[in-house]
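Q: My hope is that you can spare some time for a protein that puzzles me. Underneath my words sits a plain record pairing an amino acid chain with its backbone structure tokens. Those tokens are not coordinates but codes from a learned vocabulary of shapes. Thank you; the sequence and its tokens follow:
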Amino acid sequence: MGRVQGTQVGEIPQPGEPVGSTLPNFQAGGHVPIGNSPAPNFQAGGHLPIGNSWSSGLFDCHLHQTNAIITAILPCVTFGQIAEVLDEGNTTCPMGTFMYLLTMPVLCSQWILGSNYRAKLRRNYNLVEAPYTDVISHIFCLWCSLCQEFRELQNRGLDPALGWNGILAQRNQAAMAPPPNQFMSK
């Protein structure tokens, strides 16, 4: 029998060896992880997720209650704010809101527009498409998806509530501030 983590199957472990026999966590391609590598987190279909994790979960709307309330009542406004930031001001919040409102009567097809912007956000920050695909997230969890996207931008220093011009002004103000512990002489 082969040795698994210091003990042979059915063998009494020596002091300092793990108790019981456990099989190694195999990674994609059948490779055994080296050291204390965590087991891979497989997505549906057995694919490894590619990219970074979101800064908050899909159902963490309570983390930003003001945004959650606005999104519950007027999801088009939250979408407009997100679109303005992702398009770096080329789409204004009112224009994004209007685009979203135009898609609502067409068999609730706002999920197409929303999922396209979610995909753009993921590409910009190399985020995993999780816990569901972009389309599924916007079809079944429309409000939660918009809230998560809003929080993601905010957590990355791009507060959608400020708008693109507000973000640029905030950056300029930070760049103009004198370094800490330095004073101007008279």
Q: What stands out?
A: The radius of gyration is 24 Å. Confidence is low (pLDDT under 50) at residues 1-11, 17-44.
